[in-house]
Amino acid sequence: MKLSITTFEGAEAGSVELSDEIFALEPRADILQRVVRWQLAKRQAGTHKTLGRSEINRTKKKLYKQKGTGGARHGAASAPQFRGGGRAFGPVVRSHAHDLPKKVRALGLKHALSAKAKEQQLIVVDQATLSEAKTKALKETFSKRGLANVLIVDGAAVDANFALAARNIPNVDVLPVQGINVYDILRRDSLVLTKAAVEALEARFK
């Protein structure tokens, strides 16, 4: 598929031929859901923790004698049924990550890119650079292009001035091409790729 290349100001800067194997697939929601779920599970902290009965700092002495009281038979006061006792089957520190085949991860990225192309929310620009890091000027440029909720993906390295100017604008993410991922693509309305990013993606999936 052929797509026009523009500048951030909206001027024409040529065209680019995008690979149909990356940008023209029929998006599958099931693959996208699997990859997003894998991403979010992997980054979940898993640091939740409660104290079990063996970790409660209470006396282990038997509360009262086994027989003759007319009540239930109890041992230590750290048992879960007592106020101040341990939590039964409470959460423990663990990893929520699960495996996902590399081929599915790669396919998920292709489908996310294809989804943006199909919805005409994919923009290719010649470069994402600024002579000076001015947030106000960049915000005005985005407003003129109608980019209110956008992910911008550059080549191997992001221009320092551009990154500084964009980092204080809400709903705008700037990533190098190595950091491109399905979740960030889908959570923004528009996807902006530089020429360098397109070349790097096509080389990656070749």
TrEMBL record:
Name the source's superkingdom.
Answer: Bacteria
According to the UniProt entry, the coiled-coil residues are none
Q: Which organism is the protein's source?
A: Labrys wisconsinensis
Purpose of the protein: One of the primary rRNA binding proteins, this protein initially binds near the 5'-end of the 23S rRNA. It is important during the early stages of 50S assembly. It makes multiple contacts with different domains of the 23S rRNA in the assembled 50S subunit and ribosome. Forms part of the polypeptide exit tunnel.
Similarity comment? Belongs to the universal ribosomal protein uL4 family.
Q: Sorted alphabetically, which Gene3D superfamilies does this protein's record hold?
A: 3.40.1370.10
Pfam families named in the record: Ribosomal_L4
How does the record describe its quaternary structure? Answer: Part of the 50S ribosomal subunit.
Recorded hits in InterPro entries, A to Z, give:
Ribosomal_uL4, Ribosomal_uL4-like, Ribosomal_uL4_dom_sf
Task: Name the segments for region: Disordered.
Answer: 49-81
Protein name, UniProt field: Large ribosomal subunit protein uL4
Tagged with keyword rRNA-binding: yes
Q: For this UniProt record, give its keywords in alphabetical order, as a comma-separated list.
A: Ribonucleoprotein, Ribosomal protein, RNA-binding, rRNA-binding
A single GO cellular-component term on record: ribosome
